[in-house]
Amino acid sequence: MSNTPIQNEVKTVENKTFKVPHTYVIIFFVVLFAWLLTILLPVGKFEKTEVKYMVNGKEKTKTVVQAGSFQYEKNEQGEVVKNPAKLWGTEDFGGYGMLNYVFEGMVRGDKWGAAVGIIAFILVIGGAFGIILRTGAVDSGILRMIKITNGKEVMILPILFVLFSLGGAVFGMGEETIPFALIIIPLVIAMGYDAIVGVLITYVASQIGFATSWMNPFSLAVAQGVSGIPVFSGAQFRILMWVVFTAAGLFYTLKYARKVKKNPETSIAPDATEYFKKNMKTDVEDVEFNLGHKLVLLVILLGIIWVVWGVIKKGYYIPEIASQFFAMGLIAGIIGVIFKLNNMTVNDIADSFQRGAADLVGAALVVGMAQGILIILGGTDPGTPTVLNTILNGLSNVVGKLGGAFAAWFMYLFQSVFNFFVVSGSGQAAITMPIMAPLSDLVGVSRQVAVLAFQLGDGLTNIIVPTSACLMGVLGVARVDWGRWAKWQIKMQLFFFALGTVFVLVAHFIGFN
Asked: Transmembrane stretches, by residue range (predicted)?
């Protein structure tokens, strides 16, 4: 049968529709590209040294790159060599191979970060919240709050956004947003928004604060310390920058939130939103909110206070925070059994933990796969001959040939690109700032501006780079595919990059020092 005009029109629309590839597919092709780079580029390394600097009256020591120490790896004949990654091979059998990126990426690092620590963190947090959600207290509490606020719940968005931005600015909040997202995403969905709004007011807000911080001990302090300038200096300029960026990010968030609430079909993650709606109560008028529910919510509140106190006062990190949330989940489960919330039994505690962890296995796999990219490139150790070090040296040479404002801007661009490979703020500072700081002296850029370019480039791109274990964890919690997120977020990223450019250039022209 021949096609009718209507059939032809439908086919035309289908052909024009672009479906974003699955996150696993995108990462695979990035890994493939990294593998090709190891075939095309020679490897090199830097010498390392230790520097000492003061933070709040305490001496800190950091192993950093030695400026001007880069050298290509050479063979016995003095020829520059390449070290192409194999197609297949493990550490014990001839070196890492491209087809090993999933497993090797998942076991990279230790319990304090990289992949294996974040993966364990995600699974434990998922299990703990599986128990908490099984009690029904979160759903009941959310609906109760919406009923009490009676249409004024929109004020919750700016309050939470500013608080998370402060968290990023004051103590470098990042991984901590993963468990918070588990609470806040259902909240904003119940308010009529979508999962993206939950990601924006938690993780994105925290990284805006991280990028514009005036007192971040994990990023700014290290960058200024290894650059030889007073730690936490230039605070007034940075506080102003934090206010502007936070306001801009909040404006962007509220604009999207209003759009989605007015027309839910405009959401970029409708399937994620539907997932949460199917798994939560929706009847505001008929909500049960008894003593057991209140006690579970009290446990969550006290647990969050415990986490914040531990992070700020005791330096708690991934292992401690995971254990804190496990304790919260266990206590919530016991309360659920005692008060028979949703007819919970002891076995339901174990079953809910298993289900909660299983729900986040996909997010854990993505974290490991993304880390596999760095494995193929040879890792992030500047003292080991790798393609990544060659890329770093090449980009720094470009900066050295520039001058003035353009050099300052290119430093910002350089740090933004390099953050794809080294997402850790302190790690990137230790690798790049010993090179950028002396280079800034040569090209007429103050070291304070060089640090500013670092923190903006490092922090803002955390919102989009797939190598960020924290981003992938939050997106996994939100059930949002990275490809879909990146396609939407790129406009926001360009907006922030332009705003960052303004601040870098202004800082340069006013002699920020």
From this structure: 24-44, 112-133, 154-174, 180-205, 217-233, 239-257, 295-312, 318-339, 360-378, 398-423, 463-482, 494-512
Cβ–Cβ under 8 Å, residues 431 and 389:
no
* Contact present, 47 and 64 (Cβ < 8 Å): no
Could you give the count of Cα atoms lying within 13 Å of 450 in the half-sphere of its Cβ?
A: 30
Residues 6+ apart with CB under 8 A from 481: 20, 22, 23, 269, 475
CB–CB of 400/442 below 8 Å? Answer: yes
Contact indicator for 211, 459 with CB cutoff of 8 Å:
yes
pTM score over 0.85 = no
Distance, CA of 200 to CA of 187 (rounded, Å): 13
Instruction: For 144-177, write each residue's pLDDT tens digit.
Output: 877 777 667 678 899 999 999 998 998 888 888 8
User: Which residues touch 352 (CB under 8 Å, ≥6 apart)?
Assistant: 127, 130, 131, 133, 134, 333
Tokens of 128: 């703990």
Residue 324 belongs to what domain range?
A: 109-513
Count of structural domains, the chain: 1
Quote the CA–CA distance of 189 and 477 in Å, as a whole number. Answer: 14
Contact (CB, 8 A) for 411 and 43:
no
**Of 393, 375, 405, 402, nearest in space to 432 by CA:** 393
Map 407-426 to HEC letters.
HHHHHHHHHHHHCCCCCCHH
Beta carbons of 126 and 389 less than 8 angstroms apart: no
| Residue 44 resides in a domain | no
Percent of residues, the chain, with pLDDT higher than 90: 50
User: Is residue 284 in some structural domain?
Assistant: yes
Which helix (H) or strand (E) segment holds residue 59: the answer is strand 58-65
Helices (H), 150-194: 156-171, 177-190
Residues 101/377, Cβ–Cβ less than 8 Å: no
Q: Among residues 488, 382, 376, 502, which one has the least CA distance to residue 434?
A: 382
Structure-model confidence comparison of residues 55 and 42, the more confident one: 42
Tens of pLDDT, residue by residue over 195-204, are 999 999 999 9
